[in-house]
Design brief:
Layout (H helix, E strand, L loop, with lengths): L3 H30 L3 H27 L19 H28 L3 H31 L3 H11 L15
This protein binds MU-OXO-diiron.
Length: 173
Amino acid sequence: MLSKKLESAINEQINAEIWSAYLYLSMSAHFGAEGLPGISNWFKVQFQEEMDHALKFMDYMIAKGNRVELSSIDKVGTSWNSILAAFEDTLQHEKVVTSRINNLVAMARDEKDFATENMLQWFVNEQVEEEEMAKALIDSIKLIGDNGFGIYTFDKELAQRTYNPLKSSASNE
Ligand code: FEO
């Protein structure tokens, strides 16, 4: 069983993951309305992955005999001035998530809760990928600039992203 302190911190993280999902769902809706279905798809997959992150934490807490308490989700933005602005917000947000995960690891280590520290390693690795992916997309968008054909191609490329559900929310797969 997790300590009350870790239980509360993970409940906060579940809220943060669902807030992330909400943010990306809003970005998906925005780009869908802007006539960019590929970018909309990319953010929709991002939304689904964030919900998986919340479920992974939830399943872990239940497996350990802890209580999951869901709280209200803060409002998110509803429009972005450019494709670049949305991906820069994405990277910025993922950096915040990385530091939250690092704080959880430090807390688990401090308490010698090695099972939780081990579970969190999945998220540590995931955050490296999340930041890397957002950075790579920002670089591409900067290269494309205002080139209409470039934006068209970028949108087509992002339409290819597919959602792969996590095999087991409580495991480290
Ligand atoms: Fe759940 Fe994008 O971190």
